[in-house]
Write a structure and sequence with these properties.
Number of strands: 0
CATH architecture of the largest domain: Alpha Horseshoe
Shape: globular
Number of domains: 2
Order of helices and strands: HHHHHHHHHH
Helix content: over 70%
Largest sheet: none
Radius of gyration: 18 Å
Strand content: under 5%
CATH class of the largest domain: Mainly Alpha
CATH topology of the largest domain: Serine Threonine Protein Phosphatase 5, Tetratricopeptide repeat
Oligomer: single chain
Length: 217
Amino acid sequence: MRRTVIAAKLATGLAAIGQPASASEHQPPQAEGRQDAQALASKAIEYLQRGEDLTDKASKMAAYQEGLDCARRAVAIDETNADAHFAIFGNEGRILLLEGVTPNPVSLLKVNRELERALQLNPNHADALAAKGGLYRQLPWVLGGSLSLAERCLTKAIEIDPEAVGARIELAATYRDMGYPERSVPLLEKAVSIAERQGKRRQLSEARSLMHELQAP
């Protein structure tokens, strides 16, 4: 009983502490500043995608660090840029994983604040929704994990971006974890089709691997 109470308090604390700052605390930049920030944010996301496609640890780390630097510079110029906040979350999260940091309340709060800010600025940010869904699926319940919330976020991400590959793979994994593998296969078939067309080799491999797992006797 005592352990359950402590876990509930921890989950509640994470939800409260991780809330992003109010938009009213920040002054919007001039048009030129917004353009500069968006250019940096786009570059940061490119580094994030590059890091995910690379195979050796040193190259991945270098890409993520470059991406994180660009994203932080973008936020310094325009704090209201949702892509920049998402890029901080993505690049910093990958760096923590490469460094072997085990998910814990401190590390989660550090990166989740950026993800929440991205969604506060743009509730329809497809990549941020997919990332949020992935966190809900992968985290234990004591740290806020929830398969039903994962399904909700990932479904919305796919509705917003019909070409989303990663969100489909995560949703397929979510349905597997929920005990509905039959719902996963159509998602993976579509993910394979899109990944092949877009040349996304890493995600193509992930989708095929999960499909093989689900179809194995």
